[in-house]
Structure of histidine kinase:
Amino acid sequence: MTESPRSRPLRQLVRLVEGRRGPRPRTLMIRGWIALVAGAVVLFWVSVPSLVVDYDLALPVAFLLASVQCVTLPLAVRLPRCAMIVHVVGIMLIGWLTRGSLEDDFWPVPVPNLLALTAILIVLGLREEWIVSVSAWWLSFLAMTVVVVLSDGDLTSLSEWGVDVMVSVTVTLIALAVSITVGQRGRVRRIIADAKRDVELEQARRAAVEERARIARELHDVVAHSMSIVHIQAESARYRVADLPAAQGEFTDIARSARAALGEMRQLLAALHPEDEKAFYAPQPTVADIPDLIRSTEKVGSPVAFSSDVEPGAVSPLVELTAYRIVQEALSNVIRHAPHAAVQVTLRRGPLALDVRIRNDPPPPSDAPARRIAETGGHGLRGMRERVALLKGEVEQRPLENGGYLVAARLPTTAGEESE
């Protein structure tokens, strides 16, 4: 539903007095302040002639009282309680000074001042808790009552002022009820929005923890595999150096330490044990498995050009696992967000780093829904950054000018060996 141009200033004013932030808070605040100040100025220029002509007040007195009454309107945004006290005092002064004009004029609150009172009650109802705005209304009613009691000697009959008081009470009470309803509704919406934001933050934190745990399971699996190899080699080395007793003792110690560390590693893996035991005991993928991943991607309609000069086992298993996961997540994002787009996957091994680059073109225009890859691994861009950070590498993720997307990572080839 579109918003009409005529309703925009009113909505901006409501956002200001409610303390809400819109899409452009500075612009809305400026416009809201302009509306409040403009309203106060209009009430001032209406109040002064009314007090002078209809209520026979001196011009300086009318000027001062109207100024006090109208300045409380913008003041209520910053200092609502102070503004209400000042306004109530103004009501009492105006009612006392105009008590001689009961026969023909509205009393004890002149019409322009009644409008100002209504406006400030609306501001309080929108911004403050209901108890504050209701207390302000009772203060204004008490002020009218005090003026009527103090002016008892000047009152001739109830008909001269009773109807005016009832009209004032009714108008302000209706305005207060409406403003409290709107204000409480906005306050509840803000509470719900804050709660929703807290839930989203908690979900993001939980997702980050789960992602780190998933990465830890994979890395511990790789490390445990490497340690088991060390253990086997140390055990077999004793028989290859039978003529060196000292070396046999050292290899025995190495095997004992590797066996103990392997047991501790298995305990860590048990603590990180997922519910899916089949996936838990499955071997971790390497760069040799990337062609299978690419074939799965091509089956759902995204052509992939693959180029690699990395031989399986040429780099650390941790580096191979990270490279595989980066390609996996990048291809999954292509299927989800750019179905049927052409993709280029490149792996280049340098002297010190393995460069992984996945670039996709913008998707062709099509109304066909995108199919999902059979196995995505559940790793997002956050997990990709976590993996690269563990290897002290670098990753770049950015959209391209032609509408495509680029994922480029540089993985130190010695990082996995240091980590192990």
About this structure: Residues 287-419 form a domain with the Heat Shock Protein 90 fold (CATH 3.30.565.10). The chain is about 65% helix and 10% strand. The CA atoms of residues 258 and 418 lie 17 Å apart. Confidence is low (pLDDT under 50) at residues 1-7, 369-379.
